[in-house]
Amino acid sequence: MEDIELEESDPFASPVGAFVLDTLTVGMYTDARDAVREYVQNSLDGIKAAQASGLIGDKSGKIEIRHSPDLDDLVISDNGAGISSLVAARTLLSIGKSSKRIGENAGFRGIGRLAGIAYCDTLIFETSYMGEDVGTRIMFDCAKLRSNFDPHKKDPTKDLEAVLRGSCRIEAFEEAERSHFFRVRMKSLKGDGREFLQFDFLHQYLSQYAPVDYDSQKFIWAGEIRKLIREATFDVPAVGIDLVDDDNARHEVRKPYRGRVRLHGGEIMEIAGIEHFADQSGRSRYWGWYGRSQLLGSITDKDCAGLRIRVENIMVGGPQLTRQFFSVGAGSNDRFNDYFVGEVFLRPGLVVPNARRDGFEDTAAWREVRLELEELAKALSTEVRTTSTARNKSVSKLKTEVERLITETDNQSDQGFTSEEDKQKQIAKIDRQCEKVASALTKDRSGEEVAEINQLKVKLQQKKDEVSKLRSFATKNLQGVLNRKQLIVLKAVYDVLKMELDEKDYAKIKSKIESSLRPKKSG
What we know:
Layout: H1 19-24, H2 32-52, E1 62-68, E2 73-78, H3 88-93, E3 120-128, E4 134-141, H4 142-147, H5 160-167, E5 168-174, E6 181-189, H6 199-209, H7 222-231, E7 240-244, E8 250-252, E9 260-262, E10 268-270, E11 273-278, E12 286-292, E13 306-311, E14 314-316, H8 319-327, E15 341-346, H9 364-415, H10 420-439, H11 447-468, H12 484-500, H13 503-517
Parallel strand pairs: 1-7, 13-15
Antiparallel strand pairs: 1-2, 2-6, 3-4, 3-6, 4-5, 7-8, 9-10, 11-12, 12-15, 13-14
């Protein structure tokens, strides 16, 4: 039989379907705020390029985010280098292809710029480049794009190129030659994207994720951390980010750390200082800090609780990532992450953030660093447990002392004090114990411990009040049996016995004396 050769086109030349874009936008960025993070990340890269070329100073990088309920849009702009009109369209329309390099840039995959497609009807990129009198504008009809992602649509899936051509428009506009910027405009916000119009929604997210500075007025240890940043062997960039509303009011975004934090139960705990830690191998792969405190319990300020990992000063994964480090060896220890505030800065290029930026690619470098951070978490968990045990022991000891004193006082009340002076001695003893209990109410107590100590104070005060009202004494059982002089002598005997004997023997001998002095009943 004669072999038949089938003529077949190159299989690697197969067109890419439009559903790829759905996966890289709607599927990739399920939290609307992640789209904003991607644009801030791109702005950081543009600002770093402008700083490297001398267009702006090292501290002059600025990102402005305008959220307008009146216009129903969000605009993110920066004073970075921008993109030359010669390559702007090709750069901004490429997918999964980027000239950026990991270790030099915060972004490098070439997909983040399309994140906004999922959350608005029109997405616009505008950019200008120093020395050019023309800028580039690219407009995406996102509603039309998304219509191609409908799995129930009966029409055949279109090629990605055809979909983009039918949904995008490229324009040039006049611009000053000295102008350089990049701007993203999201118009007619949809679904979760409408939450961009809420100031708190954006501000809280950006303060945690964005590469911004600390607020020195709220966090007195900011200067100490900045000093560590200056001394570090790799850069930890910070840019100014302003949130601007329809009234043109500007709100600067800073990291959310502050000198006092709120705990479960409503208590306030002070951050007394910071502890610095670093790569012990000498390779300068990472360094970090955490707040020094009394470790009274879980911090409920969710914008700052827990250690946070940052690359290029942009948070990766949040506290849920570092919580995993604490759970190694003992799952219940994961809660101890929330006992701390702090940051871990990784050297850019050392490890690779995954596409969602909620963790890292499983590389040898990440596995090595992770093991070391797990050891740090283990040491911090031990510190929490040790501190808690010491506090619990001190409260337990107080409870034992108070219970012993109350039992002693009850026994003496039952036996009867030998005199008013003897009664006052016992009251003075209660007062001293009250002072000791009150002195235990220090700032390093948890709410539960404070409640226990206050209950001890109440018990002691109640016992003191009971004793103060007593008017009968040890000789009461022989009233009417002995005359006044005999009772005085007996009282003196009781005083001596009480000083010389322990409580049990004193009660035994006192009972025998009373029994011997009482008249015998005739048979």
